């Protein structure tokens, strides 16, 4: 059956198996049964850049974990093992495009150009998100599940109304697909035909809840047809496949084709956060099965076999990653000067009467405390002189 005569619902259905272009052993897959046509294979330059970013991302994950243990950050949800998804999300977007990340997507945010220390301010426990979203076209990392999907659709809708050349990529995990906001966002995006791509990083668990207890659908990508948009499955540990699939749908959205849902099959190698004990709900044997599927090793093997990655390249990428880690340590080890008045300063452009009252009350309390400390210090000085 020709493409022009193919049923619309068939076009929306994902491939039989997740799209994969590079196998686990690093060899290139020339043909995959049940895979849709039309996916390009990224060139060596793009893959080398992606590999360097993944090396940096792995180092970022490791360093952030160490900073948590040192008490310099409150919490860190590691994306160790999911670096291919993180890097691909940033690489596929143009400068004017927007990224809407979750709390686990720090590496993606940094790959989009946000300075690492600014990214980690939120997880450090600062009162603000750490960076101005408009400077980088990156929304603040969302901790509540799926809320950022609605925000992403809203921005995409606004961009369409204004005639802007903007595509929005919204990240979420498999757990978000069980939230009402997920369904509202996809339905609105499809009905209003907005340029937004939803990327689900299916790492197998919503904290401790396995995917089997969240859905009985053939895959999360199959949910797309219910909203009238195409869905696709991709190997989330294969950077080449991610670049190909995301690149295709982002270009489709840019050309006016509307939204799409992409499910990336990956795995969270570490615990949900430093506060989680993953051994309570998954076995060491299960985790061990994913070790050979490491996205960095896979791409390293491929590029090395192609003569596109040398030992000197590896050393250079590692050194660049160490520089990022050093900057993170220096930035997070610096003490933060806290101004209590910031609680009111950045809430509204024009403060409400209630906020003004609270602000004045706090300012008075701080002034009284300062006067008391000054008087106490003066008294101690006078006492010392009399002695």
TrEMBL record:
InterPro entries referenced in this protein's UniProt entry, alphabetically: Alpha-ketoacid_DH_E1_comp (IPR050771), DH_E1 (IPR001017), PdhA/BkdA (IPR017596), THDP-binding (IPR029061)
GO process terms (BP): branched-chain amino acid catabolic process
Cofactor annotation: thiamine diphosphate
Entry EC no(s): 1.2.4.1
Top-level division of the source organism's lineage: Bacteria
Gene3D superfamilies: 3.40.50.970
Record-given protein name: Pyruvate dehydrogenase E1 component alpha subunit
């Amino acid at each position: 059956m020709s493409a022009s005569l193919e049923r619309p619902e068939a076009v929306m259905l994902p491939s039989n198996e997740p799209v994969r272009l590079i196998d686990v052993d690093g060899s290139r897959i020339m043909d995959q049964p049940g895979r849709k046509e039309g996916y390009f294979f990224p060139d060596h330059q793009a893959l080398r850049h992606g590999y360097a970013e993944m090396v940096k991302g792995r180092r970022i994950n490791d360093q952030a974990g160490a900073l948590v243990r040192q008490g310099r950050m409150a919490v860190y949800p590691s994306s160790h093992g999911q670096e291919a998804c993180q890097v691909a999300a940033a690489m596929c977007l143009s400068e004017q495009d927007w990224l809407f990340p979750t709390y686990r997507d720090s590496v993606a945010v940094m790959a989009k150009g946000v300075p690492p220390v600014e990214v980690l301010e939120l997880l450090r426990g600062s009162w603000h998100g750490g960076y101005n979203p408009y400077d980088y076209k990156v929304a603040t990392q969302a901790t509540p599940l799926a809320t950022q999907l609605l925000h992403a659709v809203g921005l995409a809708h606004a961009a369409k109304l204004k005639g802007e050349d903007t595509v929005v990529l919204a990240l979420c995990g498999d757990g978000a697909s069980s939230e009402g906001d997920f369904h509202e966002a996809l339905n609105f995006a499809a009905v209003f035909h907005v340029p937004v791509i939803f990327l689900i990083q299916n790492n197998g668990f919503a904290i401790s809840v396995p995917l089997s207890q969240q859905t009985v659908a053939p895959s999360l990508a199959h949910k797309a047809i219910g909203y009238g948009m195409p869905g696709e499955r991709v190997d989330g540990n294969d950077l080449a496949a991610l670049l190909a699939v995301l690149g295709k749908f982002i270009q489709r959205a840019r050309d006016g084709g509307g939204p799409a849902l992409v499910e990336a099959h990956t795995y969270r190698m570490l615990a949900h956060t430093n506060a989680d004990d993953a051994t309570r709900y998954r076995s060491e044997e299960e985790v061990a099965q994913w070790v050979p599927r490491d996205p960095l090793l896979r791409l390293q093997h491929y590029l090395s076999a192609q003569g596109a990655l040398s030992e000197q390249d590896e050393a250079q990428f590692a050194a660049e990653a160490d520089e990022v880690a050093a900057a993170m340590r220096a930035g997070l080890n610096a003490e933060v000067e806290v101004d209590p008045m910031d609680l009111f300063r950045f809430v509204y452009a024009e403060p409400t009467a209630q906020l003004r009252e609270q602000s004045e009350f706090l300012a008075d309390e701080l002034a009284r405390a300062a006067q008391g400390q000054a008087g106490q210090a003066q008294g101690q000085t006078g006492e010392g002189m009399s002695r």
